[in-house]
Amino acid sequence: MRVFAHSGRRAQEPTSLSRVYRLGTFVLAAAAIMGLGASELLAQEEVAKEPLPSDVKFMVDNLWVLLSGGLVFIMHLGFATLESGLTRSKNTVNILFKNTMIICIGLLTYGLIGFNLMYPGFEDGDNMFFKFAGFGITVSEADTAAKMTKEYAAYTWYTDFFFQAMFAATAATIVSGAVAGRIKLASFLVWSTLFVGICYPLVGSWKWGGGWLDKAGFYDFAGSTLVHSVGGWGALVMAILLGPRLGKFNADGKPNYIPGSNMPLVAIGVFLLWLGWFGFNGGSVLSADPAAISLVLVTTSMAAAAGGFTAAMVSWVVGKKPDLTMALNGILAGLVGITAGADQMAIWESVAIGVVAGILVYFAVIAVDKLKIDDPVGAISVHLGCGIWGTLAVGIFGAKAGGTQIVAQLKGIVGYGVATVIFALVTGLAVKAVMGLRVSDEEQEEGLDRGEHGTVAYQIT
């Protein structure tokens, strides 16, 4: 489980209590004018200071985590619109179908094996690398009292599953954009099932499930590495195995710009993702703690804004023209960067993390092209590059800053990178050998919508 840790840096800022006190003084003065006695208001204030009954607090905490899971679900719509907008219109149905299947496959596999693989209940004496608590998520009648009440956590067993399951499919969705326009549909679905069903929960258990990296002090609040870098490593491997789209590179290796088909869809997708990130990070507090949630949402927003602004300015200065896609990917870069330490940072630190992410994503996109790797949506640059940066930032900024934490963060980056690359490579090569990965050149030219689905997204009459 992810555990929220308060940031001591927030003590330098005006406290919520001081603001409430000033507001209360104003309300008392206004009430006196209206004839309402201060004694009655003070009595109400004393009632308000009473802590919530534990059952009410449990219901509020549970509701917040459920709502956050719903916000994370919205991110899948964001990925679908972003990816379809950044790729050619002749592949739109294919993009949408893949994203639809990913969330369906992700939920089913996470329910079947993923949840109990990611949270197996490591104990002293276990190897801390692998443990499986059994198939399914059903709560037995004997366990109901413990797992469906506050005795289990700040939320129920099913809420726990629901929130975590929304995360699971995200890793495979990241890969979807990087392989767009040239991968066989059936091959992608088989590989994605293995990736989201086995790889993501297995390596996720190493930190969030209490495994070896958790014991080593590695910290990742909401998934800069566990979700985004894992997806980014998978995207990198599969993009290399597939090779580039037709026409992406000239004979001399120089990349050609292949424009997206629908920029409004791209913008809609990014803003949906930004909205969903409030659940992604805010829900990772795992309770409705007002101070914790408000800090996390502010650091998340500031990093996103700083990333978007910085990437836009860099594209304007270096590329001579302001690039919309860079600005939008800069927002995502800031979001990915802050995710590992959103609960640890002061406001200025979240801005600094976003600024670095905005610069990093611009030059990472250029570097990926120079390596002759075709990534139509910039998934490798955003999720892998900025996921690594955000993970390192936990040791550089915030309450956990220090050399010891940097070492722990590097252990996590390397551990997740090696494991995910090996898994993605082995399964990718196996699928390639059995089913093939790449569609024919003729099908790629015609478009995967007609070749794989026998239809098109846009009927122009």
Compute the average pLDDT: 89
Report the radius of gyration as a whole number of Å: 24 Å
Decide which structural class fits the backbone: mainly alpha
CATH architecture of the largest domain: Orthogonal Bundle
Strand count: 0
Strand content: under 5%
Give the termini separation: 53 Å
Which series of helices and strands comes N to C? HHHHHHHHHHHHHHHHH
* Overall domain count: 2
Largest sheet geometry: none
User: What gross morphology would you assign?
Assistant: globular
Description:
The chain has helices spanning 16-34, 38-49, 54-86, 92-118, 144-147, 157-178, 185-204, 212-215, 224-242, 263-282, 290-319, 324-339, 347-370, 379-396, 403-435, 441-446, 448-453. It is globular and about 65 Å long. The chain folds into two domains: 16-49; 54-453, Orthogonal Bundle (Ammonium transporter fold), CATH 1.10.3430.10. It has 461 residues and is mainly alpha-helical.
